[in-house]
Amino acid sequence: MTLFDMPLDRLREYRSASVEPEDFDAFWAKTLGEAREHPLDARFERVETGLATVETYDVTFAGFGGQPVKGWFVVPAGTAEPVPAVVEFLGYGGGRGLAHSHLLWASAGFAHFVMDTRGQGSGWAPGDTADPVGSAPAFPGFMTRGVEDPETYYYRRLYTDAVRAVEAARSHPLADAARTAVTGISQGGGITIAVSGLVPDLAAVSPDVPFLCDFPRATTVTDRTPYREIGNYLKTHRGRVERVRETLSYFDGVHFAARATAPALFSTALEDQTCPPSTVFAAFNAYAHEDKAIEVYDFNDHEGGGAFQQAAQLRWLPDRLRVR
């Protein structure tokens, strides 16, 4: 695939046409307030993985509606005092996987909290969290579940789970709540941006080739899934375009980015048709914190920087978390 989106100089100036709902803040304050009416009830149970360098805990906490959400909590073996924490959100279709699968951040000296993704976990890594909330007719996948009303949309539940995951991670005595970062790839990157606008006291944010940004452009510039799920839904449900667009505006990373209060390291790939670079730059250019940077991978598709981006994060994150 060759370059298909805007030239890089235009990307650096691009602004989304996504219209922010007037009640955006009120909607999310109400949503999170309702979630917090349920006790967080974060439980950490030590599991044996056969690994000598880390200690791993099986986590359960109360997410949206008080519903149970799973996760892993991994710390360097022998950790006795609180260490900076990295909360990770996962890509589309994947779950938390097996207990021994997550080593990078704990190997770097951080506490690492991996949130399972409700209802997914069957595409590329297994998950253990159900989504007990039903929806109206939807196109196969998750992008259109409840998409005609912000109250019923799938990502209302998932973004709420993510905020509660940060709270659960911070509740563990080995996690330094004041030095907490969030990160994720693709869908996980989009969730990361949402959390950056919903949790006001994060220390750092690192969305990697993020999904769920600039819906007006994303749904028209690429025909790859998952964005194409929305087009396929509207192909069948003619005449509902404006209703769907209004719903999506409550979940657009562009609007969360405008509320961010933590330093950020983004990444994008110029041949990425799954999360087109213009949609990533839309969120990056709207990102409110002045300490922000974006790694650009010129000849990559949705794999982005891969291990090169991890290396960039490992150089960038310790300064923001004030690692001693």
TrEMBL record:
It holds the Pfam family AXE1. The active site is at residues 186, 272, 302. Substrate binds at residue 92. Residues 1-318 form the Acetyl xylan esterase domain. One of its GO terms (molecular function) is carboxylic ester hydrolase activity. It comes from the Bacteria. GO terms for biological process: polysaccharide metabolic process. InterPro entries: AB_hydrolase_fold, AXE1_dom, CE7. PANTHER family: CEPHALOSPORIN-C DEACETYLASE. This is Acetylxylan esterase.
